[in-house]
Amino acid sequence: MSTSFRYHTRPMTIKAVLFDVGGPLDTEVQAEALIDSQIRAGLEAAGVRVSDDAFREANGWAVASFAPDAYGAIIWRLCGGDERIAREVRMFSSLGRVFELREGMPALLQSLHDAGLKLGLAANQPPRVIEQLEEFGIGHLFHHREVSGHHGYRKPDVRLFLRACEDLNVDPAECVMVGDRVDNDIFPARRLGMTAVLFRTGRHINQQPRSFEEVPHAEVHNVDELRSALTRLTGKTL
After folding, report:
1. Strands 175-179 and 218-220
2. Using omega within 30 degrees of 0 as the cis cutoff, is the peptide bond preceding 156 cis?
3. N or C: which end of the chain has fewer CB within 10 A?
4. Do 76 and 191 have their domain in common?
5. Which domain holds residue 141?
6. Residue 106 in contact with residue 3, Cβ under 8 Å?
7. Residue 218: helix, strand or coil by DSSP?
8. In terms of domains, do 42 and 60 share one?
9. Helical packing angle, 70-78 and 52-64, nearest 10°
């Protein structure tokens, strides 16, 4: 049986929705392509030739192994565990990357805001991402505007989520978390009692739960499905 998203019953009042940035808000299509090309260029400069099949295999291995640093894991796999090469190649930079706002997301964020839900960020990002959200006209919709670069907590550290809850003055059980990774978003959110929505997209699109504790309450693939899932989970008309 095929379904666009699935639900598990959550009989509670939802007051806030937390969003990861990379994936749900920022599609990262160009950014990920740039990083992949930099990894391959760095490896080739070090004398390591990489085929398309080998790169796909390394990417799949990094995701399936729940590597905290997927880029570092891809490099490690492709350089055969050579620490010197891995360190050299890992020095690539994605500074100045383009923020690719997902189509339809501004309207959904506005609907959530208008419905009286508090919006927050739960993301491993540098502080400059707040300016990028402002540039796209959506920054003001977020009541909690801190990311890892502000306080130093990085997912899956639950303190990042608790900091957002504290700022929003809500209990974790009153929050929905929307993220694109099982390990960084779904598991820590569920551990705190949050409702978790997995937005399947990007590099980690095929990542699978390893236990019932990592199963999201809903899975979505686009903004329309996310709107439907949040309508049901929050009980709000969006």
Report:
1. unpaired
2. yes
3. N
4. no
5. 16-28+100-234
6. no
7. strand
8. yes
9. 130
Helices (H), 100-170: 105-114, 129-135, 148-151, 158-168
Measured between its terminal Cα atoms, the distance across the chain in Å is 27
- In the block, tokens 């705190």 appear at 192
Quote the tokens at residue 45.
């400069």
- Give the DSSP letter of residue 186: I
Q: Is residue 7 assigned to a domain?
A: no
Average pLDDT score over residue span 174-188: 98
Distance (Å, rounded) from C-alpha 129 to C-alpha 148? Answer: 11
**Does residue 203 share a domain with residue 147?**
yes
The two tokens of residue 207 are 């990542």
Q: Is residue 182 domain-resident?
A: yes
Query: Token match 């990592």: residue?
Result: 214
Query: Directed axis angle between helix 223-234 and helix 105-114, to 10°?
Result: 20
Structure tokens at 65: 């192994």
- Cβ pair 195, 233 in contact under 8 A: yes
- Scored b (16 or more CB within 10 A) or e, 157-178 reads ebebbebbbebbebebebbbbb
What is this structure's pTM?
Answer: 0.91
> Does one domain contain both 119 and 177?
yes
What is the C-alpha separation between 30 and 99, in angstroms, rounded? Answer: 9
Q: How confident is the model at residue 98 (pLDDT cuts 50, 70, 90)?
A: confident
Q: Which of 70, 89, 108 is the last residue of a domain?
A: 89
- Tracing tokens 């894991």 back to the chain, one arrives at 73
Measured distance CA(238)–CA(236) in Å, rounded: 6
